[in-house]
Amino acid sequence: MVRRCRAPQGRSMSTEIGFRLLKVGHCSHPECIAQRGGRFTAVPFPALACLLIHPRHGPMLFDTGYSDAFFAATQRFPERLYRLVTPVSLNPGESLTMQLGLHGFAPDDIKHLFVSHLHADHIAGIGDYPRAKIFVMRAEVEAMRRASRMGGLRRGYLRMLLPDRFDMSLTYVDDCPRVALPDSMRPFRYGFDLLGDGSLTGVPLPGHTAGQLGLLFKTTEARTVFLVADACWSLDALRHDRAPTWIASQLFADKREYLSTFAALRQVLARQESLMMVPSHCESTWKQLSDEAR
């Protein structure tokens, strides 16, 4: 059973959202593969999740980063290849449930979980939130379900990470009300009103995967935030037009769509200096926002 979206209650994006970026482990990979002109040395790529606090719905999550479930799922071959190719580290104190506890929340407090895409480094902790509605683009779910075990692994999917209740918890983002985006977001023209009150707008960011989702909202500090997941891996690469190399692009669902989305993000970033654009694996963004939160 797939859940339906909430009926619209006004779409002004006037409801402000509490926002905290959390690092939930990291992987290491040569920078020269992740972006053209990058260093040959391995660099850390943090797995970033976001704690969102809605004035009515309470704490919500955008992605989960890594968890112990990832290591269990990649214990045997062929899945073990995943962490051999991109070595993963989850340090003590980085577990998402532990970090939520530091903010005063338990896993059962999470009623909404927005998933950018179903790659393992974004959903490894998805099973820890039994009361959450899980919002995913339909194309993303279908892509994972179509993939064979090896085909899914090659694309970054580990189906065993999905909880048994996944279908019962699932809400297709595409079923939420479709809304026009402001001119400042062009060439992105539409999104989805995820909660029916205009507070969170899901923006399709295809290419990296078939149904990748970004999230647009305004914070309690009156900052506009655009969570862009893996549509780019760092703001430096985006600003300097350094897309991933051919090797990295072999993992993408559609290279042309990826480059189109990448170019669109460049336009938005150049137009809106005040916009806080947050890629899910950008080390400099993590350092900046974690310093601001201290």
TrEMBL record:
Chain ranges of the Metallo-beta-lactamase domain: 46-281
CDD domains membership: metallo-hydrolase-like_MBL-fold
Keywords carried by this UniProt record: Hydrolase, Metal-binding, Zinc
Cofactor: Zn(2+)
SUPFAM superfamilies: Metallo-hydrolase/oxidoreductase
SMART domains, alphabetized: Lactamase_B (SM00849)
GO molecular function terms noted in the UniProt entry: hydrolase activity; metal ion binding
InterPro entries, per database record: MBL_superfamily_lactonases, Metallo-B-lactamas, RibonucZ/Hydroxyglut_hydro
Pfam families in the cross-refs: Lactamase_B (PF00753)
Family, as annotated: Belongs to the metallo-beta-lactamase superfamily.
Protein name stated in the entry: MBL fold metallo-hydrolase
